[in-house]
Amino acid sequence: MVTRPTRRSVIVGAGLTVGAGLAGIPCGSAGAPQERQIVAAPRTFKLTGSASVATQGWGYDDAFPPPTLRVTRGEMLRVRLVNRLPEHTSIHWHGIRLPNAMDGVPYLTQPPVEPGAEFVYEFRPPDAGTFWFHPHCNSIAQMGRGLTGVLVVESPDDPPFDADIVCLYRDWHIDESGGFTAFSTDEGAGRAGTMGSLHTVNGASLPVIDVPTGGLIRLRILNLDSARIVTVAMPEQPATVIATDGNPVAPVGFGEWQMGPAMRLDLALRAPEREGATFALVNNFAAEPWPLATFRAAGAARSRPPADLPTLPASPIPRPDLDHAETLEFTFSAASATALDPDDLPPALSDLQSALGTDAPAADLLCRSQRIFWAINKRPWPGQSGGRVPPPLATLTRGRSYVFELINATPHTHPIHLHGHTFLVLESNKRTVTPYYTDTVLIHTKERVKVAFVADNPGDWMLHCHIIEHQDTGMMGYVRVA
Ligand code: C2O
Ligand code: CU
What we know:
about 475 residues; mainly beta; 6-stranded mixed sheet; about 40% strand; binds copper (II) ion
């Protein structure tokens, strides 16, 4: 959580955590990018739950969450990733339209960053908003242990708020003694995901977050869980949706909002006028909403007269040309053993397959033993295939507009994410859509959703489910923009 009296103090503040994992090294000469260092390393977290115990996690900082990385739109961000983990890692900057070589997908866009090695990410975020970052390898365990962080891109044109508060939701797979339980089971990976038992906002169970009494607040809510879809609501507090998944929207009253893993929601609200008054953020799930966090008005009331709730300036996202767009279908389904392409499989599996023959029962067994449960257009690309990169799902012509029809042929909901581009959600066969820009869209059972974008960013871009166990057990692929 960051509460900031002014924008400047936090930008400076974020650069002062020297010695911690995220250290900004202020740079004297104007215009030259400030280099920040992110050290991925084993860390001891104190996650407050019913028992406040130590958890031996992996993190980008000694505390969880790491300090929010705040940068200015259009300015060069330079981040040196130092890998002190016992295995290779990378950083993917979720939702940022950046050059392919900076996208952080091992084998596809960069070599893996080996233990002891470093990698410098350098890019200019073109859009202001709420984003995040995470590894893109062994993600079930790396994210499960704590490798997630928030990236806020600010704009000089952003309207002023009295406080800008990040609420990072995620679960943890830990027991009472703070030890990790299984991040993934076949049961979970083959269904809706393996849920963690400790629900946290900013690394704490049921935190109380102070907001300036009567102040105008920007709340940035992120669902950075690997599996759980939450429906956030604030039953006692009026608020306005100002951005979804980092992209400004025409302000609309906030009732509740369904957020899959990786999705973000920015709200504007006027804090209670009475010091000490509270309101809750809940997950409206089933009959009994779960409380997630409590906000409390703190400090003397603002004397500033209430201003209108602000509208954020739109991001410069190219508008797809729907009249001349080509439509491509992507079907998200369970993996069918008989449809496996040997070229897409890890070597061990194709060897086994040829040794045992490809009749369905044997192949089904193999699928299970290799944890291949899901596919896109019948092609599974599981996480354990290491350096073996399959051919792209599609090759797109640079500069051309595309409509992707995303088809969910499973009994589960999938948050589908495309790298390197922000797409316009156009329509669904199951619900009314007011077109909006996003990088991750939830597709419900039997739903077909059409999204459109201009393929203006050359390179190989991942397309995958952001339920990390689905991604890791086959529901990933990539498109090539050439
Ligand atoms: Cu958060 Cu492949 O992405
Ligand atoms: Cu999924």
